[in-house]
Amino acid sequence: QVQLVESGGALVQTGGSLRLSCAASGRTSSAYPMGWFRQTPQKERDFVAAITSTGASTRYADSVKGRFTISRDNAKLTAYLQMNSLKPEDTAVYYCAAVGGSFNNHYVYLKEREYNYWGQGTQVTVSS
User: With contact defined as beta carbons under 8 Å apart, do 68 and 49 qualify?
Assistant: First the structure.
């Protein structure tokens, strides 16, 4: 079993920046493909960004491309989401997730159903 804990969510003004962290613990002998998703009360959970187990490849939702950057430090078992130029529509609970079991080291996983482990979420609020 893998446990994921997000941190870094906060209230920030439009145009500001935040960095979210996702620390993994438990059965972490392997580096897992990871992703970030977000959810508001009015919508289902949406894909934000994902990264391969090695960190070699990343993918982003169109709405955050050019503003958000996903990265990872496998030595620290931690993934990050750097969020710049934040907008009010970025307000959401942000979740990190990891793909467990059998996975492809070169594949970037985009679908929620492909992820086995989830954190508890961290709130990001962007004021206008």
Answer: yes
Q: Using 50, 70 and 90 to split pLDDT, how confident is the model at 21?
A: very high
Structure tokens at 46: 């949406």
Q: What is the DSSP string of the chain?
A: -EEEEEE---EEETT--EEEEEEEEES-SSPPPEEEEEE-TTS--EEEEEE-TTSS-EEE-TTTTTTEEEEEETTTTEEEEEE-S--GGG-EEEEEEE--SS--TT-----GGG--EE---EEEEEE-
pLDDT at 28 over 80: no
Q: Which two tokens stand for residue 87?
A: 């907008």
Quick one: pLDDT at residue 26?
Answer: 84
What does the pLDDT read at residue 125? 98
